[in-house]
Amino acid sequence: MVKARKYVVKKHFEGLPKREDFDIVEYELPPLKNGEILVKVEWVSVDPYMRAYNSRYPTPYDQFGFQVGLVEDSKDPRYPVGTRVVSHKGWCDYCVINTNDPNAGPTGQPYKLPNLKGLSNSLGVGAVGMPGLTAYFGFLEICQPKAGETVVVTGAAGAVGSLVGQIAKIKGCKVIGFAGSDDKVKWLEEIGFDKAINYKTADIAAALKEAAPKGVDCYFDNVGGELSSTIINQMNDFGRVSVCGAISAYNDSNLPKATILQPALVFKQLKIEGFLVWRWFHRQSEAFADLIKWIQNGDLKPREHITAGFDNIFDAFVGMLNGDNSGKAVIKL
Q1: At a CB cut-off of 8 Å and minimum separation 6, what does 316 contact?
Q2: Sequence-separated (6 or more) residues with CB below 8 Å from residue 215
Q3: Could you give the CA distance from residue 265 to residue 261 in angstroms, rounded to a whole number?
Q4: What is the architecture, at CATH level 2, of domain 130-275?
Q5: Does domain 2-125+304-332 correspond to CATH entry 2.60.120.920?
Q6: d(Cα 136, Cα 127) in Å, to the nearest integer?
Q7: Residue limits of the Enoyl reductase (ER) domain (predicted)?
Q8: Which residues contact 2 (CB under 8 A, 6 or more apart)?
Q9: Which of 5, 88, 135, 317 could form a disulfide with 164 if both were Cys (CB 3.0 to 4.6 A apart)?
Q10: pLDDT of residue 202
């Protein structure tokens, strides 16, 4: 029998998640059945959607999330021992995965870690995983950027935003990013952003007008709130907005008020579309091929904020929600 540990959410979060909202449960994994694999987890992801989805599930529930792990035992010939897999089994150190679960949605089925050609396996929960797919399809499919256009990204120093900005540069766009510290601003400009702005200290409207005097064509929105309203009100005719999230409000008990958007949407004839990345999961191979190629040739420079240890997953999660990370927050087990 293999003993495993997992994080269980026992209480819905009120404001910022608290350690007492979780239990760490130790238990014995059952023997494998046909179609199952035993996975030793090596890398665990923490992401903003884990906070956003918290209230959607009745408690208690096992904390979900993407992970990369090594198959240590198998009763599925498609996943022999030694295979590395990506799954959505969450914050645990070992797990049993049913590879043929008929009720599993797009996140439920494991898949083999792509051939990363010598890159770190941690990228399987980052730039060559769900965040990479989010940046790739959420930006390219919805914004449909054209060379020479001006792109704005909020949450630009995060796992998704930092990739979106670099992909926009690859596509020949001018890119402006908003982040929450001077260090993050400096990093964004080091990786190719034409301009980065500290939203906590800048006059946002004036700074954006100076950075984009001819207006904004595409906006990738990770944060929501008044910052987004300000950006949308400086967009050009037929501008496109891809709404990925609203991390500025995830931990607020009372939702913030923001300037009305309808006049800008109507008079500038803007397109604004929210998305869930699962709609493109069936196309992951085409995105992964481009992302790996761009990383290898130096056009895309993913950054990771690595925390070590199973017991530190909660701290990494809260740190990510507080904006402590630049790039992708991952935990090495």
Answers
A1: 46, 305, 307, 329, 330, 331
A2: 150, 234, 235, 236, 239
A3: 6
A4: 3-Layer(aba) Sandwich (3.40)
A5: no
A6: 10
A7: 15-331
A8: 28, 29, 38, 94
A9: 135
A10: 97
Q: Is 203 left (phi over 0), alpha (psi -120 to 50) or beta?
A: beta
Q: Write out pLDDT tens, residues 149-197.
A: 999 999 999 999 999 999 999 999 999 999 999 999 999 999 999 999 9
**Domain locations in the chain as residue ranges:** 2-125+304-332, 130-275
pLDDT of residue 109: 84
In terms of DSSP bridges, do strands 84-87 and 67-74 run parallel, antiparallel, or are they unpaired? antiparallel
CB atoms within 10 A of CB 271: 13
Per-residue b or e along 274-285, where b marks 16 or more CB atoms closer than 10 Å to that residue's CB: eeebeebbeebe
pLDDT band for position 101 (cuts 50, 70, 90): confident
Strand ordering across the sheet containing 174-179: 195-198, 174-179, 150-153, 216-221, 235-243, 271-274
Q: How far apart are CA 127 and CA 85, in angstroms?
A: 16
Residue 21 has pLDDT above 80, yes or no: yes
